[in-house]
């Protein structure tokens, strides 16, 4: 009973506690004997200077009464026993602030949702539960310490890694907000994959035009620095204060490269995707002449010629084979496969088909697809392609088409359930493999940043709906196709969303974080390092100078407390939920 | 009508669903003052009413609940619920919006959401938040997780028996309340007005509203939610547990006969999600999805589709022509088989769910008085130059996010809301402050 | 010690954002569950030290129910795995101390999972009722 002994030590301190038990106009008092709760507390708790029952704790008059009490009686701790803290904890913490009491010296005990309403018809049971919750709240405030929001300065700058459309869009937003932007691009030019593309669905704009539009918006902005031929070498620090070393390769002879150090408050990773490259032999790729990928076709269409000719071959009939490198079957041996759908390809392929129908007469296109995923308004392109001379044939995952050479043409064999699964051969001049997106091969950067990836290999957000651009490393954000396959507009959205989050970190030059973070009692820490292994946010490190003790970086801590559970000595604890607070509450709840 | 003095904010966000809440929180966190206007008595929009959400099957209220609570306590967000924008005028400094706050006939500052008034009220009407599956009283708290959690009196259905006034322990009932007219002067606007569901009655051959065992997918989502109306997964006609459920995908989408040729983007996924949830509640039930194409295109969606097949959800590629009711209230589905040997086929089910599509809230265009907001052919808000910005409307300073610009799943809506917040912030800061450069290293 | 009027005392660990609202929901829906339960909220179920659980038994609780975040945890995607591991450790410690391990239960309770919570606590209550007070087990820890 170590805890009780600790308790005795604090008993001499003479806390001055105010306790306010709410009737909620009968909602509590109909099933909880509020008067009895008040009497019991008065009897058993000498440090409860004021114990009152109020008709409505939350009413303005009641709050004023509490403020007067706190001031007049010099209360240093308050317990409010009322409805669910989800409804009014913030109300009462604000009340405490108005009374110049540290808001974390107040505990809001639930005696309505979790007592009176849950145990209707059981006055005795509901009352004893309410009393236990109030006693536990008193035990809590007795061991509570004033907490302050954690404030930390932030550098008014953001680093963007990747100069594709996602990086450019994020740079525009942040720059216009007045945030300094450093953009690092490893290739010599901006624009990424999009810059290489011809007309892009369904916008009827070319890739270079899209990139130019974004780059033009950045021109002349004096708070943007763009580094091309540059790679991130290392980084350190935490939210608000990252230090990033960048290697910039020069084109001029003489100095080969220079190394610069950037100080930023947040980092946006916008490194994009890789196009799936089919292995030799997949659907005849690399083995059958006339088998190309969708990006190859898009480049070929970019020349503006009047006739569709590919490597000297005039194209009159062609076949698109969909889902190449996407929606792959899970291999039985448990090996790697791209299980995911690449999202953009159905739309991109139908749009290219439309372009071909529009530009060239009498080109027949067979689309061998699995599910036509022209979602949203892209459905209209699917309709138009069918009207324009495209023939859509569905194939099953277990019966993919076969591609073989047939004279100077390609023979495609497919099986369709509509013709009783008999093989059908078609002869075409060109086979286009509709290839998907893959996670960017970027081992060096991945090692430097140590950002977690999902099972699909793309960077993983903390939560797709709650924190869609945040990663396990607080302050390091992800956007665009580095996170998941996306089209142009969706990429721009995610880039701007990341910019918004980065801005919320750096715009005010000061961060305000909840005080509920982990802390280490160095006397108790024996450097077992379990907490370090347990923390997914990298918030804890072993500090040699302190004599090998764990230390928490508050700006990295999200306050889950996972470290608390694994510490063999109880040295690491969570503010607002210390082991002492929890144990003393357990003891009171057990009475 | 009580005229209130003009108030100034940086941004007006119209719509308190997931997109509007996210945009408001993002802007609030950046330090901008935001007014969030929601026409319903509670924020959270349609998402808060959903069961679990794909593809991670996390509980919808666990996610939106944190957002509703953040919005209601955020120091930079002024929340106006049960309020409608009456008109917006463009002025030199930005916009002036007139907002009418409807009377709740309940003093929100006194109401403790105890529910005594609900118990006392003798009038029962269908509950719109349960899509008619259960009733509510004329005075009611919309649902347990409503924010703000206050009662609201629906005067149209009230018989003035005054029972609520008599029982209210807080004396919060006030029949004398009148509408309040707010004037909000703002620098920019975010339209997050969401969507409407396709009215299934329009597909006459499916007999929704006529056959009790034909439900819409939104109703079914309520049936499988933990806060579900019947506290069990049962069919309406006789309260039996369904054993053979059929889903008609693309109800009101990809269908020129109802004027909506587009795909609604979310129906494939939410239908599969419901199928998985039904299987969780009723492990022996058969679930069949009648579909045209399974559009599982988002992050983790295809994996979810495969998982659904592995769990035993049946996928039948075919277009449902009509549904007929049998004397035992079971249903026969006639569909065109587009995968097997073709032709018209039929199948029996004991419950049919219509996976209804998403349609625009076109009234948003009428809000603007001296400028014209561009909508597309269907009525979604048009984005001006999608390859430049995903959220900029044709009006300078007016942005749109979420399903206001077209059907979208929750992850995409959240991202677009973030984008709107970002560009809104850029617009305001870019217009007002002269940007000062801090120690920017020179470009190479 | 008379067991005929024995009311098992159950400590429930809930989480601020996920399971505590789910327990509130049980109250709001007026779903009854044993009133001898006591609720203590923490940010995330992964922070519950096995030692807290043992402390509960030592302090006189007859059973402990962990209303975990499950798959809805806002902090950790593998919250369930971590919590389960810690609960397993606590369970082993219980065995060492001669406390019946069925007195400890963990379930993922979402923010509206009122039924799952009420059912879980009731069934733990029934099991514990059959087992009798914790102080009847092993050596007496009440001193």
What's this entry about, in short?
Chain A has 591 residues and is α/β, with parallel strands linked by helices.
What's the structural blueprint in terms of helices and strands?
The complex is a heterotrimer of chains A (591), B (444) and C (143).
Chain A: H1 2-11, E1 17-22, H2 34-44, E2 48-54, H3 60-72, E3 77-82, H4 85-98, E4 106-110, H5 112-116, H6 123-143, E5 150-153, E6 157-161, H7 165-177, E7 180-184, E8 199-200, E9 205-206, H8 207-218, E10 224-227, E11 230-238, E12 241-249, E13 257-264, E14 266-269, E15 273-275, E16 291-293, H9 294-301, E17 309-310, E18 313-314, E19 317-324, H10 345-359, E20 364-369, H11 379-388, E21 390-394, E22 402-406, E23 409-415, E24 423-428, E25 430-435, E26 437-439, H12 443-449, E27 476-478, H13 488-506, E28 510-513, E29 518-520, H14 530-534, E30 540-543, E31 549-552, H15 562-566, E32 572-574, H16 579-590
Parallel strand pairs in A: 1-2, 1-3, 3-4, 6-7, 6-14, 7-10, 14-27, 16-25, 19-20, 19-25, 20-21
Antiparallel strand pairs in A: 5-28, 8-9, 11-12, 12-13, 15-26, 17-18, 22-23, 23-24, 29-32, 30-31
Helix pairs in contact in A: 2-6, 3-4, 6-16, 7-8, 7-13, 10-11
Chain B: E1 2-3, E2 7-8, E3 11-14, H1 18-30, E4 34-37, E5 52-53, E6 58-59, H2 60-73, E7 77-80, E8 83-91, E9 94-101, H3 116-120, E10 124-126, E11 135-137, E12 139-140, E13 152-153, H4 163-167, E14 180-186, E15 188-191, E16 195-197, E17 214-216, H5 217-224, E18 244-251, H6 267-281, E19 286-291, H7 301-311, E20 314-325, E21 331-337, E22 344-349, E23 351-356, E24 358-360, E25 398-400, H8 410-432
Parallel strand pairs in B: 1-14, 2-14, 3-4, 3-15, 4-7, 15-25, 17-23, 18-19, 18-23, 19-20
Antiparallel strand pairs in B: 5-6, 8-9, 9-14, 10-11, 12-13, 16-24, 20-21, 21-22
Chain C: E1 10-15, H1 19-28, E2 37-42, H2 50-59, E3 63-68, H3 79-96, E4 104-108, H4 114-131
Parallel strand pairs in C: 1-2, 1-3, 3-4
Number of domains of chain B: 3
- Described by its quaternary structure, the protein is heterotrimer
Largest interface: A-B, 99 and 88 residues
Strand order of the largest sheet of chain C: 2-1-3-4
Strand content of chain B: 25-35%
Rg over C-alpha atoms of chain C, rounded to the nearest angstrom: 15 Å
Overall SS class of chain B: alpha/beta
Overall residue-averaged pLDDT value of chain B: 93
Mean pLDDT of chain C: 91
The low-confidence parts of chain B are: 433-444
Number of helices of chain C: 4
Give the structural class of chain C.
alpha/beta
């Amino acid at each position: 009973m170590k805890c009780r002994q600790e308790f005795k030590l604090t008993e001499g301190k003479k806390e001055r506690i105010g306790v306010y038990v709410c009737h909620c106009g009968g909602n509590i008092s109909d099933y909880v004997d509020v008067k009895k709760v008040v009497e019991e507390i008065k009897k058993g708790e000498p440090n409860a200077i004021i114990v009152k029952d109020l008709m409505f704790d939350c009413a303005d008059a009641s709050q004023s009464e509490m403020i007067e009490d706190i001031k007049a009686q010099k209360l240093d701790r308050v317990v409010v026993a009322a409805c669910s803290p989800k409804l009014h904890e913030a109300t009462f913490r604000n009340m405490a602030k108005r009374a110049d009491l540290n808001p974390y010296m107040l505990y809001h005990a639930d005696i309505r949702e979790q007592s009176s309403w849950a145990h209707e018809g059981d006055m005795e049971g509901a009352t004893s539960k309410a009393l236990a919750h109030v006693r536990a709240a008193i035990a809590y405030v007795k061991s509570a310490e004033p907490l302050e929001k954690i404030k930390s300065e932030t550098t008014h700058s953001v680093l963007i890694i990747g100069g594709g459309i996602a990086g450019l869009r994020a740079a525009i937003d942040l720059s216009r907000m007045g945030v300094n932007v450093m953009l690092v691009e490893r290739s010599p030019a901006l624009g990424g994959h999009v810059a290489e593309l011809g007309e892009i669905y369904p916008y009827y704009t070319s890739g270079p035009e899209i990139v130019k539009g974004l780059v033009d918006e950045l021109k002349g902005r004096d708070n943007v620095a763009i580094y091309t031929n540059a790679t991130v070498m290392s980084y350190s620090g935490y939210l608000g204060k990252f230090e990033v070393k960048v290697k910039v390769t020069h084109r001029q002879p003489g100095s080969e490269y220079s190394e610069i150090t950037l100080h930023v408050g947040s980092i946006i990773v916008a490194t994009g995707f890789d196009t799936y490259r089919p292995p030799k032999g997949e659907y005849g790729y690399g083995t059958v002449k006339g088998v190309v990928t969708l990006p190859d076709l898009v480049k070929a269409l970019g020349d503006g010629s009047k006739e569709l000719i590919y490597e000297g071959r005039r194209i009159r009939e062609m076949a698109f084979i969909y889902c190449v490198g996407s929606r792959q079957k899970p291999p039985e041996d448990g090996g790697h496969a791209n299980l995911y759908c690449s999202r953009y390809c159905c739309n991109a392929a139908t749009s290219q088909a439309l372009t071909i129908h529009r530009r060239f007469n009498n080109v027949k296109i067979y689309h061998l697809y699995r599910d036509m995923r022209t979602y949203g308004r892209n459905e209209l392109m699917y309709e138009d392609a069918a009207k324009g001379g495209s023939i859509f044939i569905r194939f099953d995952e277990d019966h993919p088409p076969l591609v073989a050479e047939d004279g100077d043409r390609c023979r495609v064999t497919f099986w369709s359930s509509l013709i009783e699964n008999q093989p059908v051969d078609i002869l075409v001049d060109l086979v286009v493999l509709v290839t998907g997106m893959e996670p960017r091969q970027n081992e060096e950067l991945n090692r430097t940043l140590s950002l977690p990836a999902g099972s699909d290999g793309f960077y993983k957000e903390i939560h797709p709906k709650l924190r869609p651009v945040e990663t396990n490393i607080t302050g390091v954000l992800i956007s665009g196709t580095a996170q998941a396959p996306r089209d142009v507009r969706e990429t721009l959205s995610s880039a701007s969303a990341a910019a918004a989050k980065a801005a919320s970190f750096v715009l005010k030059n000061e961060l305000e974080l909840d005080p509920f973070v982990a802390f280490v009692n160095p006397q108790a820490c024996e450097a077992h390092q379990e907490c370090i292994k347990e923390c997914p946010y990298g918030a804890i490190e072993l500090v040699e100078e302190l004599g090998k003790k764990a230390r928490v970086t508050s700006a990295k801590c999200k306050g889950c407390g996972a470290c608390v559970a694994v510490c063999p000595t109880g040295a690491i604890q969570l503010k607002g939920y210390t082991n002492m607070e929890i144990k003393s509450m357990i003891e009171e709840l057990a009475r | 009508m009580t005229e209130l003095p003009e108030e100034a904010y940086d941004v007006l966000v119209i719509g308190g669903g997931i997109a509007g809440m996210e945009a408001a929180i993002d802007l609030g966190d950046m330090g901008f003052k935001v007014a969030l206007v929601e026409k319903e008595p509670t924020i959270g929009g349609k998402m808060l009413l959903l069961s679990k959400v794909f593809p991670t099957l996390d509980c919808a209220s666990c996610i939106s609940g944190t957002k509703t609570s953040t919005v209601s306590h955020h120091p930079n967000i002024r929340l106006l619920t049960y309020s409608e924008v009456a008109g917006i005028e463009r002025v030199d400094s930005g916009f002036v919006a007139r907002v009418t706050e409807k009377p709740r006939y309940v003093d929100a500052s006194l109401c403790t959401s105890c529910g005594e008034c609900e118990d006392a009220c003798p009038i029962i009407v269908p509950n719109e938040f349960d899509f008619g599956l259960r009733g509510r009283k004329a005075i009611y708290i919309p649902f347990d997780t409503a924010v703000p959690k206050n009662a609201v009196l629906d005067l149209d259905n009230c018989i003035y028996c005054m029972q609520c006034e008599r029982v209210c322990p807080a004396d919060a009932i006030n029949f004398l309340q009148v509408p309040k007219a707010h004037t909000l002067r703002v620098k920019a606007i975010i339209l997050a007005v969401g969507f409407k569901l396709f009215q299934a009655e329009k597909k006459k051959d499916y007999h929704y509203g006529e056959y009790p065992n034909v439900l819409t997918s939104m109703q079914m989502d309520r049936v499988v939610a933990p806060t579900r109306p019947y506290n069990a997964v049962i069919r309406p006609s006789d309260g039996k547990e369904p054993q053979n459920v059929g889903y008609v995908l693309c109800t009101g989408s990809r269908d020129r006969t109802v004027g909506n040729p587009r795909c609604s983007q979310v129906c494939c996924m939410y239908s599969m999600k419901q199928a998985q949830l039904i299987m969780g509640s009723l492990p022996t039930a058969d679930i069949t999805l009648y579909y045209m194409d399974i559009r599982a295109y988002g992050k983790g969606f295809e994996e979810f589709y495969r998982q659904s097949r592995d769990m035993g959800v049946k996928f039948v590629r075919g277009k449902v022509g009509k549904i007929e009711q049998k004397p035992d209230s079971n249903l026969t589905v006639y569909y065109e088989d587009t995968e097997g040997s073709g032709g018209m086929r039929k199948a029996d089910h004991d419950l049919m769910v219509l996976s209804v599509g998403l349609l625009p809230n076109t009234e948003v265009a009428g809000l603007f008085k001296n400028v014209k907001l561009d909508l597309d052919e269907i009525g979604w808000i048009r984005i001006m130059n999608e390859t430049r910005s995903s959220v900029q409307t044709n009006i300078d300073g007016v942005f749109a996010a979420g399903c206001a610009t077209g059907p979208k799943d929750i992850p995409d809506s959240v991202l677009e809301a973030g984008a709107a917040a970002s560009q809104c912030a850029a617009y305001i800061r870019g217009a007002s402050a002269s940007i000062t450069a801090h120690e920017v290293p020179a470009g190479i | 010690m008379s067991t005929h009027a024995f009311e098992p005392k159950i400590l429930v660990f809930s989480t601020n954002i996920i399971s505590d609202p789910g327990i509130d929901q049980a109250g709001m829906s007026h779903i009854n569950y044993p009133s001898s339960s006591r609720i203590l909220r923490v940010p995330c179920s992964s922070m519950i030290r096995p030692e807290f659980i043992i402390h509960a038994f030592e302090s006189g609780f007859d059973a402990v129910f962990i209303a975990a975040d499950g798959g809805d945890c806002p902090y950790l995607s593998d919250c369930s795995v971590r919590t389960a591991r810690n609960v397993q450790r606590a369970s082993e410690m219980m065995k060492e101390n001669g406390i019946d391990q069925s007195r400890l239960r963990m379930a993922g309770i979402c923010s509206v999972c009122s039924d799952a919570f009420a059912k879980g606590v009731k069934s733990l209550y029934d099991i514990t009722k059959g087992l009798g007070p914790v102080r009847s087990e092993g050596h007496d820890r009440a001193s």
